[in-house]
């Protein structure tokens, strides 16, 4: 980090706007955990390295109102305000931008993140207080953009942004993906509130506390119709094993982290990198456990054995459905046989296999949903997550959803916890019934209950899991805003 005297006068404050548990999950209990805005730590590292006075404020975890945020912006005399957010955060992003402009119309509001990357023009049209939208990976874009603004240069020369010019939106085109991630500076974790105190992953993914999240690759070659790949694209790139290990060591030694959750879309895609990282962790003799996500067609016994030795205790697989017909339609490119083999193999090697499932895909029927629930119960899974098929902006399904059912395109509710998309032949009430049935039948079994009891090593764990249990009950008992009415197509 640069010394204060060497930093440029004009600074930038990056803000993750406030979102409540009800905003994120439709319930009042924070069952999903508090995860850090990792994207902001990457762009902040770039602006710091380039000499800009930089601050990150995570209003969600700190519970800060817009009024409190504006006071920070004004007191810090920031010339630039960067705001990030997912689709459900768009209203929060917009209201914050409006308040910034009310406080000082000369401040430049820069927005980025997955939602505005997916639909930049629509986002800019909906919120007139957004000055510039950074599309895609912002690591290099943000520095080039600030430099251009400081020197009053031509914004058309900055690739990867959408900005306003005399009332018109100007799109400078798509920026190519960053190929060498090792050249990027380490994330500016020190600008966030203390990891161990403020952040925690979702309870069903945690074995040891404190835990932290890490992203060690970008991009996904998959073609699943429900995924938004607009930020990182289909080009899969990864930090080297040594660079990833360096990040893990920093979390371990500097922040006291004892569990690392690698949140790559598919961490198993680079077997040689995975092998080297496992060997580095084993050689370091770290008192650490870790988890990751991966595809069922990319595991083998030798890989799993090495992962287990290095401390891996949980792998999340995107299973999605127990119907081959549905798997084929959503372009998952996996089979029921591959899924079964991978889950059984993972369990046999002593690693907890967990599954993501989706209810209500296009062409889904009551019978295929029952197949999915039965499949989840049949597999030796230790955890399962059942979400509704949701057409997120940037996904293939977002543009064609109305061809297969009714879609309520209310951005603030597109989080997967409401049946906003209802496929032809089913109703929202039926989808809710199946969702509650899936959670009840999976989690209220002696084997699953006992697995949670075994994990409780302290009163902190007890408190943590009890809050999650309350959240699960709220999910099962609630009636969503969509229940009992006909969804509109927008």
Q: Count all strands and give the number.
A: 17
Low-confidence stretches are 1-5, 479-490
The percentage helix is 25-40%
The CATH architecture name of the largest domain reads Alpha-Beta Barrel
**Count of distinct structural domains:** 2
By CATH reckoning, the class of the largest domain would read Alpha Beta
Beta-strand content? 15-25%
Mean of pLDDT: 88
The rounded Rg comes to 22 Å
Instruction: Sum up the overall morphology in one term.
Output: globular
The CATH topology assignment of the largest domain is TIM Barrel
The first-to-last residue Cα distance is 47 Å
Q: What is the multimeric organization of the chains shown? A: single chain
Biggest sheet descriptor:
7 strands, mixed
Give, in spatial order, the strands making up the sheet with the most strands: 2-1-3-4-5-6-7
Quickly count the helices. 19
């Amino acid at each position: 980090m640069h010394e204060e005297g060497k930093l440029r006068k004009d600074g930038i404050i990056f803000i993750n706007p406030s979102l409540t548990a009800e905003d994120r999950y439709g319930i009042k209990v924070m069952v999903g955990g508090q995860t850090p805005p990792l994207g902001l730590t990457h762009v902040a590292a770039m602006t710091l390295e380039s000499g800009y006075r930089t601050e990150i404020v995570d209003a969600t975890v700190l519970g800060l109102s817009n009024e409190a945020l504006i006071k920070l912006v004004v007191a810090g005399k920031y010339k630039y305000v960067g705001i990030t957010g997912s689709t459900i955060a768009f209203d929060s992003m917009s209201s914050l931008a409006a308040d910034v402009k009310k406080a000082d119309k000369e401040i430049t509001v820069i927005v980025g993140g997955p939602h505005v990357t997916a639909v930049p023009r629509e986002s800019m049209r909906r919120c007139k207080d957004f000055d510039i939208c950074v599309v895609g990976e912002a690591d290099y874009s943000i520095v080039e953009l600030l430099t251009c603004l400081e020197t009053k240069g031509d914004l058309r020369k900055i690739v990867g942004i959408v900005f306003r010019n005399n009332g018109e939106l100007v799109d400078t085109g798509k920026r190519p993906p960053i190929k060498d991630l090792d050249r990027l500076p380490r994330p500016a974790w020190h600008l966030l509130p203390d990891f161990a105190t403020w952040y925690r992953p979702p309870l069903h993914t945690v074995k040891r506390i404190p835990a932290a999240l890490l992203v060690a690759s970008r991009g996904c070659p998959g073609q699943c119709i429900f995924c938004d790949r607009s930020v990182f694209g289909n080009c899969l790139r990864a930090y080297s094993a040594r660079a990833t290990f360096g990040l893990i060591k920093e979390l371990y030694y500097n922040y006291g982290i004892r569990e690392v959750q690698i949140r790559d879309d598919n961490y198993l895609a680079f077997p040689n990198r995975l092998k080297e990282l496992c060997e580095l962790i084993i050689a370091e003799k770290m008192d650490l456990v870790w988890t990751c996500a991966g595809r069922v067609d990319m595991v083998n016994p030798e890989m799993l054995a090495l992962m287990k030795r290095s401390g891996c205790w949980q792998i999340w697989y995107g299973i999605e459905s127990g119907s081959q017909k549905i798997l084929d339609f959503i372009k998952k490119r996996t089979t029921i046989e591959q899924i079964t083999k991978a889950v059984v193999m993972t369990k046999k090697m002593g690693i907890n296999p967990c599954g993501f499932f989706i209810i209500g895909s296009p062409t889904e029927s009551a019978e295929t949903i029952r197949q999915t629930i039965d499949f989840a119960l049949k597999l030796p899974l230790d955890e399962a997550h059942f979400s509704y098929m949701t057409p997120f902006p940037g996904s293939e399904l977002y543009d064609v959803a109305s061809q297969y059912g009714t879609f309520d395109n209310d951005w603030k509710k597109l989080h997967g916890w409401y049946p906003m998309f209802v496929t032809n032949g089913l109703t929202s009430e039926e989808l809710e019934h199946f969702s509650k049935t899936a959670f009840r039948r999976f989690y209220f079994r002696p084997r699953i209950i006992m697995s949670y009891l075994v994990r409780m090593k302290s009163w902190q764990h007890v408190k943590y899991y009890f809050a999650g249990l309350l959240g699960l009950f709220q999910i099962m008992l609630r009636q969503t805003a969509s229940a009992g009415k006909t969804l509109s197509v927008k």
